[in-house]
Design brief:
8-stranded antiparallel β-sheet; alpha+beta; 4-stranded mixed β-sheet; 20 strands
Length: 475
């Protein structure tokens, strides 16, 4: 039967389609189309189960016929990471949605994995609460955010979304529904500067018990299918301001971030945006001109270029009570100098990635004291400034290389940057890339915890049915 199911034009495939329709309902099971792909690998079927038990039946059917299963939420990060070795059934979590109503004073809420994050926030806002999560992918579901361990500016204070977990319900590879954690009991501590996700946590995690929840974070569906998550929630801050300052160099950013953190202002986020600077047209002025003669530091005299237009911005988010936020904003502007500006709305780039579809997207994680060295190393390796954006306050940023760069060139840039980061306990990961680059380069770099990852995969998915090949090491 497994051999028959390898092609959707054989009788065995029709039988599997019929069984999927019985489980999910006729409108919610079908042969996959060209758009149903994962990092370029097209699925054979799409199943949209109506609840946890139906999802469990889909997994049991897959196990019975030796079929692979790859979960999909909104598909906002479906091209991140490695392509799976095979996608037989794409399990769409869109109907595993909902925010279970908790008492208004409750500090937690159970949320279906297929619930769009925006819907979660809108529902909680009605009771004056929020999830302290702001993943940049528009339309992302909570399950997708957790599966990718995706985080935005608020990770500075609250850690990654996986750090907000109190409990999870998930399906293992055999279709067994497992619940771990208890309301009010945290599974994870705050994520450190070097990020989170399954790979970063294996050093402290064991497979049994609550620590399984740690493994699911960042696993891209390769260790289990998330059904719901119980998350910490908090009151919506009464006051919010964004204090911004123009910046010119990574070293300047380093000095400013250190000063901000040393001032104990309790920022909710410290974000950096370093776009590729656009050179301004220059008008040649003779050295004999009076304006030059009176300025011995003028480029016409020194032979050095003048200070360019601001290459980027450092923005600090302050949250809390209105009076407290105003007082801290005054202290922060005094610290940052006369170029600092207080705004009551975020800048346009806030919470957005610096890369576009088709780019090679990188994630750099390094101790904050070495972030400037990482950015300089990336510039040197690329031979030109590249867009960099992210949480300078914890040393986790994203960068974009043009999708037109040849794969060998990307590989050489990665090798150079990783060489610099290795001595600084940092990492450079390829988040997404064009197919030729994805196939040719090492997406993760050196991963000392790979043996533990193999152990976890062997324990939780011994037959490699869940998202095979999506994890490091081809797992």
């Amino acid at each position: 039967m497994a051999a028959a199911a390898r092609s959707t034009d054989r009788p065995g495939a029709l039988e599997i389609t019929r069984k999927l329709a019985e489980i999910c309902g006729p409108p919610f099971a079908r042969f996959a189309g060209p758009a149903d792909e994962v990092a370029g690998r097209t699925a054979r079927w799409v199943a949209v189960p109506g609840g946890p038990h139906a999802a469990a039946e889909v997994l049991r059917l897959a196990a019975a016929h030796d079929l692979t299963v790859v979960p999909r939420g909104a598909g906002t990060k479906i091209d991140w990471g490695a392509a799976p070795a095979q996608v037989d059934i794409m399990l769409d979590t869109g109907r595993l949605a909902g925010v279970w109503h908790e008492p208004q004073a409750s500090a937690v809420a159970e949320i279906g994995a297929g619930t769009p994050l925006r819907a979660v926030q809108a529902t909680l806002e009605r009771t004056g609460r929020r999830l302290p999560v702001d993943a940049p992918s528009p339309g992302a579901t909570l399950g997708g955010v957790l599966a990718a361990d995706e985080s935005g500016p608020l990770r500075h204070r609250h850690g990654s979304p996986c750090a907000q977990l109190v409990g999870v319900r998930y399906l293992d590879a055999d279709g067994e529904l497992v619940s771990v954690g208890e309301p009010g009991t945290a599974l994870l501590g705050r994520a450190g500067p070097a990020g989170g996700g399954a790979a970063a946590l294996f050093g402290a995690a064991e497979v049994p018990g609550l620590d399984v929840a740690r493994l699911l974070c960042g696993s891209q569906g390769g260790l289990g299918v998330l059904v719901s998550a119980t998350m910490r929630v908090q009151a919506v801050p009464a006051g919010r301001v964004w204090v911004s300052r123009p910046v010119w160099t990574p070293l300047e950013v380093h000095d400013l971030v250190r000063a901000v953190l040393a001032a104990r202002l309790d920022p909710a986020a410290v974000e950096l945006d370093l776009p590729v600077p656009v050179p301004l047209p220059r008008r040649r002025i003779p050295a004999s001109h009076p304006s030059v003669a009176n300025r011995p530091d003028h480029p016409a005299v020194t032979g050095r270029p003048g200070r360019p237009a601001a290459a980027g911005s450092l923005v600090v988010l302050l949250e809390g009570g209105p009076a407290d936020v105003a007082e801290r904003a005054d202290r922060l502007t005094a610290l940052l100098g006369t170029e600092a500006v207080v705004n009551h709305a975020a800048p346009e780039w806030w919470g957005r990635y610096p890369f576009a579809p088709g780019d090679t997207a990188l994630r750099i994680e390094v101790p904050i004291n070495d972030l400037h060295a990482a950015v300089y190393a990336l510039r040197d390796a690329a031979g030109t400034p590249v867009p960099v954006r992210g949480s300078a306050g914890i040393g986790a940023v994203h960068a974009a290389l043009p999708g037109s760069l040849p794969r060998d060139r990307v590989a050489s840039i990665l090798a150079a940057v990783r060489g610099v980061l290795m001595a600084r306990q940092g990492r450079c990961v390829v988040v997404s890339a064009p197919a030729p680059v994805r196939r040719a380069v090492d997406l993760w770099g050196e991963l000392p915890t790979l043996p533990r990852l193999r152990t976890a995969k062997a324990h939780l998915d011994p037959h490699h049915r869940l998202s095979p090949g999506r994890l490091p090491g081809g797992l």
